[in-house]
Amino acid sequence: MRALLLVAVLPFAASAQEAVEEVVVEAPEDEANQGYSPDESQAQEPIRFTGYLDVGFAKATGNGSSFRENDTRAPLDYGNDAFAPAVNSRGEVASTDSTGRFTNGFLPRSVGIGSTPSLLLNTFSADVRVQPRNVPVFLFARLQLMPRLLPTGDVTRLELQQAFGRLSPFKAHEFAVFLGRFDSVFGIEYLENEANLRLGITPSLTARYTTGHGLGAKAFYRVQVASLWSAFSVNVAGTTNGTRIEALVPVSASLTGAVVGSARLGYELNLQKVQVKLGVSGLYGPRNDIRVGAAKQLAIAGDLRVNAFGFSLAGEMLRLIDERGAGALKVTGTTQAELASGFQVTGGWARLGYTLPFTTPAFTGATLYVRYDRRHGQFEGFTQLQTDRLTGGVRVDLFEVLALKAELLLNRELAGAPLVDNDVFTSSAVFTW
Amino acid sequence: MHALLLVVVMAGPKGVDAGVQLGEQLPLALLVKSPEELEYKAVTERQYLLVTLLVGAKSAWDRNDWESAATKWEAVLRLPNLPPDVDEAVKRFAKVARERAGGQASSLPALSAAVAEPVVTITPMEAEASKPSTLTVTGVVQGGGSHGPGGAVVVLRRVTGQTPKPKPARVRAVVQKDKRFVPHVLAVPLGATVEFRNEDDFFHNVFSISKPNDFDLGLYKSGAQREQVFSTAGPVNLLCNIHSQMGGWLYVSDSPWFAQADAQGRFSVKAVPPGKWELEVWHEWASQTVKQVVTVAQGMADVSVTIDGDRRAPAFVPDKSGKPRQPQLGY
């Protein structure tokens, strides 16, 4: 009997446990499993309708305003309303009782409403995007219902905020030309000037100077430097009215007929886990809210954004000067003033945010943030107003369509205005479609 | 997985046909003229049966035919006086195979040591020989809204027991061309290495913030390519940090049995072992996947699945830090 059985287990027995736990099967090779690409007709929708609805709540401490009821020194411009939230860029709560002197439920209507919460429709915004196939043209229009924004304060205003065509003539270059009415190119806050984009609720103390919509032409060009994971960009615009919001300088006000130039030079560092964006902006041109062309407006700003490991840091510094228009009538978006005094403002803001590192299909994000704003503004012949604000808040996103926000604003008058109790709690629900 | 190598070296008495082919039939056609030769035949048949069962079980295991594998290994374990090393190695596999076959992995019945000759027959093996070990599951996905069902990913997972993991594979590249990801949707097995190739004349980036498969391959020039391994199952939204209009999808399958629907929604999943399976369909434009149980058997009808097309394109496309980009700006 010389039957010999060699059962060589190489190295079968030793790896048996591993094999039991990690069974792998090769997926069958199949041409049908090599992916799917829709044809052109399904690749993109040539027309899209999007938009959002923003409903806000606000309650102020004290009398609800940074000015006393009978304080006649209050410059009218501070009653205006950037982005139309329930809290204006000064940090004051809008009143639902807007039948007043000049504007939109803020000063002076808001004086004394500290104990009366406001629940307001902030904005209803509807966009249409048209992108014909195989044509390097993009058409865009944004229509906004902006309650309270009319000189009498009684009537809701429907505003064509943007309407432009964008031409991207070169496939191989990031170059685009815009014609029409469009976003500012100055600074960075215009990138968040809609409630569904904005992390918080209240715009910064300097938003009113940088986030207006110009009528004219602009161009964007960006070049990538792959070896440095970097990009350089330039945004240049020639518009009728500079970069201030509609309420300060209406888009139709081009009283000198001359163009206001603005531009931003940008640098981006796009590492895998860290992104840094830096920019400097400038603006120069006639005031255009008066008929005296010799009076100029000029501004310069620097901005910074850093995103890393869930943290985001953003900030902007601004210096803006309006030269005096001697004997000129000044036209704003809400009224006319007999005196076009000189004006200058220095301000800035910095915001630190942290986005929680987990999401679910229903819970699509939550970000905590804190922001500090400061503005020193002075009309020629008036006392300089020094204001600062500390804002803390949270934004929670649900189902990719609903943003719930809440924030607390600690407002302080540092100089030039009486120190009054006007801290504000505000919240906002933004539904995007 | 390491291969099992069985080497049988047999030296028999004179008269044994050296050219005899191992088969699945017992008894062996060996001449028996003496008690010694009878004893020899018994030992040979025992070893023959052992080897046949071991090899057959392993082959069945490799083609995911758990029932056959379990039956054969259990038969091995019933053999008396099994060498301890064989006994130890086989027990683990028999247990797992039985679990995957949908049965209870209980302690195996010990046969009486008095049973000198194996009573196990190879009848089951003969019966299975006529049964196909795997089948192709075909069907149609319907729905998907205005986008249609094309690109839907169909994944089959076992209803009972663990579904084996797919073997990691190198998959054909996803190409960035004309500011599009081509293919637009690609299903890949878990652990796959996907190549991203820039076939445009300008720089591209590819990134995703679909956790936990988030990644960023940086900037790369025309003609260059990057690779990424996808080690977590689920959909992965592909984006370009430069061109906000670019979007594509990978679907990472944790099962080796998956397929993608064509433009008409037709799909076929090949080499599926018979049994009960949960069929799940994912589609780019459906907010929820659709699941149903199918029984894979010979003669089964086409599967029909309807998915929603209720998911809208997001109003804003994020950059790689997750910040929304306004599409009208183009940057």
Key attributes of the depicted protein:
heterodimer; A: 433 residues; mainly beta; Porin; 16-stranded antiparallel β-barrel; two-stranded antiparallel sheet; 3 helices; 3% helix; globular; disordered N terminus; B: 331 residues; alpha+beta; Immunoglobulin-like; 2 domains; four-stranded antiparallel beta sheet; four-stranded mixed beta sheet; 4 helices
Offer a quick outline of the entry.
Chain A is mostly beta strands and 433 residues long.
Question: Can you describe what's shown?
Answer:
The complex is a heterodimer of chains A (433) and B (331). Chain A contains 3 helices and 20 strands. Chain A is mainly beta and 433 residues long. Chain A has a single domain, classed as Porin, CATH 2.40.160. A 4-stranded antiparallel β-sheet of chain B has the order 14-3-16-17, with no helix packed on it. Chain B has a 4-stranded mixed β-sheet with strand order 6-5-8-11, with no helix packed on it. A 3-stranded mixed β-sheet of chain B has the order 15-2-18, with no helix packed on it. Chain B folds into 2 domains: 35-129, no CATH class; 135-325, Cupredoxins -  blue copper proteins (Immunoglobulin-like). In chain B, α1 packs antiparallel against α2 and α2 runs antiparallel to α3. Chains A and B meet through β1, α1, β2, β3 and β5 of A and β1, α1, α3, β4 and β7 of B.
What is the element layout, followed by pairings?
The complex is a heterodimer of chains A (433) and B (331).
Chain A: E1 4-8, H1 16-21, E2 24-25, H2 40-43, E3 47-60, E4 118-130, E5 137-146, E6 157-167, E7 174-183, H3 207-210, E8 213-225, E9 230-239, E10 260-270, E11 274-286, E12 296-308, E13 311-322, E14 330-331, E15 336-337, E16 343-355, E17 363-379, E18 385-398, E19 402-415, E20 424-432
Antiparallel strand pairs in A: 3-4, 3-20, 4-5, 5-6, 6-7, 7-8, 8-9, 9-10, 10-11, 11-12, 12-13, 13-16, 14-15, 16-17, 17-18, 18-19, 19-20
Chain B: E1 5-9, H1 35-62, H2 66-78, H3 84-100, H4 123-129, E2 135-143, E3 153-158, E4 165-166, E5 170-177, E6 180-182, E7 185-189, E8 192-198, E9 204-208, E10 215-220, E11 225-230, E12 234-239, E13 247-253, E14 258-260, E15 266-272, E16 275-282, E17 290-296, E18 303-307, E19 317-318, E20 324-325
Parallel strand pairs in B: 2-18, 5-8, 7-13
Antiparallel strand pairs in B: 2-15, 3-14, 3-16, 5-6, 8-11, 9-10, 12-13, 16-17, 19-20
Helix pairs in contact in B: 1-2, 2-3
